[in-house]
Amino acid sequence: MLGIFVAGILLLAMPELRNNAGLSFNLFQSAGSKPPPLSFAEAIGKAAPAVVNIYSTSYDTRPLYYRRQPIERTSLGSGVIMTFNGHILTCYHVIKDAERINVMLQDGRILEASLVGQDPHTDLAVLKVTDENLPVIPQSEQYNTRVGDLVLAIGNPYNLGQTITQGIISATGRGGLSNYVSNANYADFIQMDAVLNEGNSGGALVDSNGTLVGINNANFKTLDRNRRIKDVAGIFFAVPYALAKRVMDDIIAHGRVIRGYLGISGAEIISDAGILVTGVDPLGPAARYGIRTGDILVKIDGKPIESTFKTLDQVAETAPGSELTFELLREDEDKKRTTVSVTVKVSELTSS
C-alpha cells in the first residue's frame, strides 16, 4: 500500500513519467541554466594559425607612348603550412608567373617564400619558408572524406583578413572540371558549399576537429545567355588531402610529380561494370601490349573496375616501370575473357 501511495505521488508530481518519458534530472538544475552553445572555436584554434596569406608579385610590360614601362601586379591567395620545415601548400594559379612571393602568418610575421615546385594538373604548388616555431595544420593519413561531413573553409577573402565559412561535403570524386575550376584538369575534386571568394584559393578545408580535409580551390563557373562567365552560388571545390599530400611529397622529393601513363581513353558502361576503351594511343603502353579500341576492361590487378576516373587515377599513381594486369572482354571474340599485363610508362603530364 505504501508503494502504491508513493507511486501515485510521483505521477502527480512528475507527469512526464505517465508517458514513459523517464526521469529528467533537469529538476535538479537551476531554472536559468542552458546547454553550452555548439561551437567550432576549438577546431579553428588548432587549424587557423597554420593558414597563411599569400601575396605574389609579377611584372608586366605594356607599350606607353613608344616606351615600355613595367607594371607591378599583385595576386592574393592563401596557403597551408604542412611541415615544421616550412613547406606550404597552395594553388598553382595563386603564384603563377610570380617573381616574388610573400607569406604573412596570423601572428603578424611576414616571410619571403621560394617556389619548390608546381603541378598545374591538380592546380597545386609547394612553397618553402624558413623560420622558427612555425604552426603546422593537424593532418590524418587515415582521414576518410564522406558526403555529408561538416567542413570549415579558412582563407583570406578579398584581403579582409582570415575568415571562416562553414558547409558540408556535397560530393566527392568530381571530374571533368577543367573548364570550370581554375586551370586544373583532374578527376578527384571535393564539392562542398562552404563559400569561397577571391583570396580563399589555397586555404584549408578542415573538419569539425580542425583536421585538414583538402586545399580550397575555386567556385563553379558557367556561361550565361550572353556567353559571359559567371559564378554559381553554392558549388565550390577543393583538392582532397590525400591527393594534395601525394603531390606535395613528390614535389619535395623529386622537384616534380611523376605519373604513370597507360595511353587509353574510356567510357563507363551504364548497364554493366567495366570501361569501354574508346581510344588507344598508338605509341602508348596499352597499344604495345595489345589493348584495342572496343575492349571492355573489367578488372585491374584482380579487382573489379568501379569507374573510369578511379581507374585512370590508379594508373596515374602507379610508378613508371611497374606492371598492371587487366582482365578484359573482346567483342570480336564473343566477349572472351583475356588477361593483359601492361608496363606503365612516364606520363607526359609529369609536371616540372
From TrEMBL:
PROSITE patterns according to UniProt = PDZ (PS50106)
Q: Which keywords describe this protein according to UniProt?
A: Hydrolase, Protease, Serine protease
Q: Which superkingdom? A: Bacteria
Q: Where is the PDZ domain?
A: 251-307
Q: Which family does it belong to?
A: Belongs to the peptidase S1C family.
Xref: PANTHER family: PERIPLASMIC PH-DEPENDENT SERINE ENDOPROTEASE DEGQ, SERINE PROTEASE FAMILY S1C HTRA-RELATED
What name is this protein filed under?
A: Outer membrane-stress sensor serine endopeptidase DegS
| Annotated source species | Bowmanella denitrificans
